[in-house]
UniProtKB/TrEMBL annotation:
Keyword Transmembrane helix: yes
Transmembrane domains' residue ranges: 39-68, 80-104, 125-144, 164-181
Keywords of the record: Membrane, Transmembrane, Transmembrane helix
Top-level division of the source organism's lineage: Bacteria
Name of protein: Uncharacterized protein
Length: 198
């Protein structure tokens, strides 16, 4: 009897301890897992930009060699448009999906070896959206601090070290908070789906 009473008393104590552990970390600040994903996304984003610049230069030389320097022919050429969409959308998503699958997931045996699983594809789409949104947020912050930063007089000049630092910090914090907000939303849906204890 005493052991049963002790077990019943220990259960609420353990539940209170879990609740205090959850409340110990502030809800408004991204969890360490979100910062880890942000760092990996930053390294992946730099790799994607580097690869896109190389592929873009090679593709540009090949296009100019085949079609010439006519802008109308380039803009109205369907294969060139499809190739640009692939480089701008599909290639980054596939690369991010493969990186996510390599670190956190397993390949689906029902899919081809070059095809990431569906969850990894979703993470790739989300990661690319986070990257682009973070860049836009950094540009908006730069523009709010200096409205003339993107004027014609600045087009031929590079960004200063301070502007690059502002862009980098805003990119990291925006990405971390986007991952954090998604985690909070997913946790809230999980909480709603839990059956109520009577």
């Amino acid at each position: 009897m005493n052991s049963n009473i002790d077990n019943q008393q220990s259960k609420p104590n353990s539940q209170k301890q879990k609740a205090t552990n959850k409340n110990y970390y502030p809800v408004w600040f991204p969890y360490p897992h979100c910062w880890l994903k942000t760092i990996i996304l930053l390294l992946s984003f730099c790799l994607i930009i580097f690869l896109l610049r190389i592929i873009g230069v090679i593709s540009g030389v090949a296009i100019l060699a085949m079609i010439g320097n006519s802008k109308d022919k380039i803009l109205l050429n369907l294969p060139i448009i499809l190739w640009a969409c692939f480089l701008g959308l599909l290639f980054p998503v596939f690369l991010l999906a493969h990186i996510y699958q390599l670190l956190w997931s397993n390949p689906n045996p029902k899919l081809p070896s070059w095809m990431p699983n569906y969850r990894s594809l979703g993470e790739g789409i989300w990661g690319w959206f986070v990257s682009i949104f973070a860049v836009l947020m950094g540009v908006l912050i730069l523009f709010s601090l200096d409205p003339h930063v993107f004027s014609s007089s600045y087009q031929n000049s590079e960004l200063s070290d301070t502007q690059v630092t502002i862009l980098s910090i805003s990119w990291v914090f925006t990405s971390a908070y986007l991952y954090h907000f998604r985690r909070l939303i997913c946790n809230s849906f999980k909480w709603l789906k839990k059956p109520k204890q009577q």
